[in-house]
Amino acid sequence: MFSNSNSQDLELFEKETFEFEKETLSYRILKPLNYNPNKQYPVHLFLHGAGERGNDNVSQLVHGGKLFLKKENREQYNSWVIFPQAQKNDWWGYKDPYKFDYNVKESKAMSLVVKLMDDFTQRKDVNPNKVFVSGLSMGGMGTFVILNLRPEMFAAATPICGDGDPSLVSNYSKKVPVWIFHGSDDSVVSPKKSLKMAKAIIENGGSPKITFYENVGHDSWNNAFAEKDFLKWIHSKSKKQ
Predict the structure, then answer these.
(1) Quick one: pLDDT at residue 102?
(2) Lower CB count within 10 Å: N or C terminus of the chain?
(3) What is the CATH number of domain 4-231?
(4) How many angstroms separate the CA atoms of 140 and 163, rounded?
(5) Which pLDDT score is estimated for 93?
(6) According to the model, what pLDDT value does residue 5 have?
(7) Are 16 and 28 in contact (CB under 8 A)?
């Protein structure tokens, strides 16, 4: 899956588990560069796609892990980076009537992520005004889900090739800046889904940023990560008071 050099780099993401009411969430966490416990750092939550589900606590780093390890990114956008992993039979959903076709009766993964983030953002070495969320495909859907569940938590969100429930955007449309990405030729998750969400956010008083890539299919995360302003835009945002 990874070359040896990439595997060694990715080991900088420490393996952790979070437990709540007998349920366990595996996640990987990257400490800020030159970590100082007396400083406050931003937090970037990253939600993986359906193909990276499992219990190896490794696969979720396949897409996006290397982006946060780049020397210039660690220096310019120094932060905590958290990559949780959903189980094979789960997804980043929640107990609401809006479901996607993942053959999951009840999602536990997202409730665990919410609990983890509730705890983590209370730490003294976290800047609570600079908590961000990104996700691709199933994780793009999860980005919209967690924005609805915790609209007060996030300063910016970047859902990539995702989908969501337009009836729930009023919770976060005016509070959280959103940059949406999608490939115009995506046959797995239609780009119309991102258009639908952007339209709903606009209709609810928000001002989303949206980028479509011509002649690009489902893997538009590669294009999003290559955007020179991807992390710059995210880190320019602070929570609206």
Answers:
(1) 56
(2) C
(3) 3.40.50.1820
(4) 7
(5) 81
(6) 42
(7) yes
Neighbouring C-beta atoms of residue 211, cutoff 10 Å: 16
Q: What local confidence, expressed as pLDDT, does residue 3 receive?
A: 45
Q: The dihedral of CA 204, 205, 211, 214: what is its sign? A: positive
List per-block mean pLDDT (blocks of 10 residues) for the chain, which spans 241 residues.
Answer: 57 96 95 97 97 96 96 96 94 65 70 96 98 97 95 98 94 97 97 97 98 98 97 95 62
Residue type, 61: L
Question: Cα–Cα distance between 55 and 52 in angstroms, integer?
Answer: 9
Name the percent of the chain in helix, strand, coil, to the closest 5.
35, 25, 45
94 near 110, Cβ under 8 Å? yes
Nearest residue to 26 (alpha-carbon basis) of 56, 70, 50, 52: 56
- What the block records as the tokens of 233 is 């835009």
Q: Could you identify the residue written with the tokens 């999602």?
A: 107
C-alpha distances in Å from residue 158, one per residue of 104, 132, 146:
25, 8, 12
17 beta partners: 26
178: three-class secondary structure by DSSP: strand
Structure tokens at 182: 């999608």
The domain locations on the chain are 4-231
Cβ pair 164, 195 in contact under 8 A: no
Q: What is the pTM of this model?
A: 0.93
Q: Give CA–CA dist 194/172, Å, rounded.
A: 16
Count of beta carbons in the 10 Å neighbourhood of residue 38 = 6
pLDDT for residue 99: 55
Residue at token pair 């990874």: 2
Written as six digits, the tokens of 152 are: 């007060």
The DSSP element (H or E) to which 84 belongs, if any, is strand 80-85
